[in-house]
Amino acid sequence: MGVEPIPAGMCKQVQMMPWVLHRANSLLAALPLTQGLEREVLILGKESRPDEDRLKQLIISSKLTSNSSPSPGQMVQSLALSTAGDRWDMERMGILGDAFLKYSTTIFLHYNMADTCDEGDLSTVRSKIVGNLNLFHIAESLGLANCGIVSTRMDPVVTWTPPGYQSAAMVGGGIVEENVVELDKEMVGWVVGDIRGWITREDLEKLRLGEMTEDEMKVLARGRRKEHKVGGVKLSDFRLVSDKAQADCVEAMVGCYLLHCGMENCLDFMARIGINLSSTSRVEEVIERKQSREKVIMQTPQKDAFCSDQVRNEIAKLQTLMSSLGADQIEKITGYTFKEKSFLLQAFTHPSYGDNRLTASYEKLEFLGDAVLDYLVTCYIYTNTDADPSRLTVIRSALVCNNMFASLLTDIQLDQFILHCTPGIYNKIKEYLDDKWWDETQPAEVKVDKTLKQINEEDPPELDMVEVPKVLGDVFEALFGAIFLDSGHDLSVVWSVYRRLCPTLDKVVANPPLNIKKQLLEKFPVVGSVVFSSATQEGGGTVSVTVEVPAGGTRRKFKGKGRSKKLAVLAACKCALRKLGEEEGVDAAGDCLARTE
Cβ atoms within 10 A of the Cβ of 176, count? Predict the structure, then answer.
């Protein structure tokens, strides 16, 4: 009997077959999540990055696009975890989807919870809709973990089974891997899938042949776990996908629809999977994940901010309040003229200001403005950088936070227009501005900070942490919530005002600042070189923490104080950076306070 030779080209094709089948299976799994396909789109290659201007327009515009659905090839990217080691993964797209979910849900709640002005109540309901638990239940109803999500690296020998096949059958009946999964469920107190780490391929073979019972395998796994004798097997028929990973994939699918099909088609997709944010929906229906295949009807923009029809006619009172507010100056500073002045009045009204009974306080506008800014900034970073998910999150966190918003508001002196009747607010803002002035103007050669108190040679320098008043960031967010409503939900108008008021946007995107603690840890990267003391209670309800670092051939201590341990730690770090920076001839505190969470 002779041996028939196989051409080298055919051999290579045979070797490629598992990967081709693996990719085809992924595309077919993604197919039910798309619709309206009119052409062959089962693509295998990685798509090139779209033009940035077109991409920004597609994201910011709410108009329909020609594509009602992404291709299966595009959808596959939103279902590929980073652990799969593929040419793409869902993480960047998931960040975009997360921002749009927050934005669209916030608008829905703004109109469907019209009688609620409490930011806490609105945030609680929003978390029930966009939180990981709800998104996981949506993923579960779609069956993503069973077929759609690609979670492991493709290995034809270990982690792959040809379509239509299963792992080895047991001699007495049943499938080996199915038995392992059932055994894993019986391991009380163990993490899901943990049993795989304490058994070996030899154990599975014995189980298959009947040489080991299921009870014996459980005893063996517990014994190895107790003695830390690690085994480790990978299953080819089953994948371990965490609840959070499934929720993240739902966010990524939303991002995929938004990216390739526009806002309205994305909202229609969300309605089909159980997040129906149509103006005809009720909040209870959205929380219950009621699905709909009907076209989503967008909310009609709010006309004004008046509390009732009765106060709407109090024109003289409105004019008096607008004069007290200084509306003309605010519009001149922002470069935006309000068509409906009541939105502007609401944006600058603190809950303590009783003279304004025409509108509510800024709390609801703050809730709206936060989501609008978060979405726009995320879109800008996504379309203007190739930043990996980790860096993208760092940039977004630096730009969309209370500290940055407070800094921007005070930079243009809009803090002077806040309507309030609380002396404490004035004092906090003054303390913040004094501290901010020091950070931004003090020359590096100045040796001693007026807020650094050198008690004696044995006591460390200390610094009280000046908190960023929350009211400043809240008013900044409320201002943009007001512009969003006044412009008729025109995101391009909101974005143009934000770009004007945030001149450092591109610098922060290119080089996002670290918070104070991270700056200190990077200055002394050796593990264990930066040591924090335990918190100590002091008079007046303050807490103190001391940080010890190596400097000048010895160990130096710096003390920080604040209303909580977290603030005291930040104060200690800031104190160390300032003092060491002065001694090195470098102003190390320039970015500290304005970037601290």
Answer: 17
CA 369 to CA 346: how far, in whole Å? Answer: 13
Angle between helices 243-261 and 132-142 (to 10 degrees): 80
The overall longest dimension of the chain from CA atoms, in Å, is: 107
User: Residue 54 to residues 50, 71, 264, 267, 408: CA-CA distances in angstroms?
Assistant: 7, 19, 17, 20, 29
Q: Which residues contact 234 (CB under 8 A, 6 or more apart)?
A: 152, 155, 158, 159, 196
The amino acid sitting at 350 is H
Cβ atoms of 359 and 345 closer than 8 Å: yes
Distance, in Å, from the CA atom of 34 to the CA atom of 41, rounded to the nearest integer, reads 11
Give the confidence band of 160 by pLDDT, cuts at 50, 70, 90. confident
Q: Coil, strand, or helix at residue 556?
A: strand
pTM of the model: 0.81
User: How far, in Å, CA of 558 to CA of 536, rounded?
Assistant: 14
- How far is 133 from 110, CA to CA, in rounded Å? 22
Reported as a single tens digit per residue, the pLDDT across 249-295 is 999 999 999 988 889 999 999 999 999 999 999 999 999 999 999 99
Contact 333, 413 (CB under 8 A): yes
Residues found in the chain = 597
The pLDDT value given to residue 45? 44
Rounded CA-CA distance 306/342 in Å is 7
Q: What integer pLDDT is reported at residue 122 of this predicted model?
A: 92
Sign of the C-alpha dihedral, residues 571, 573, 575, 578? negative
Nearest 5°: the CA angle 470, 473, 477 is 135
Q: Which ranges in 34-155 belong to alpha helices (H)?
A: 52-60, 72-77, 91-112, 119-130, 132-142
The token pair at 493 is 């108008």
DSSP-assigned letter for residue 388:
-
**HEC string of 292-311?**
CCCCCCCCCCCCCCECCHHH
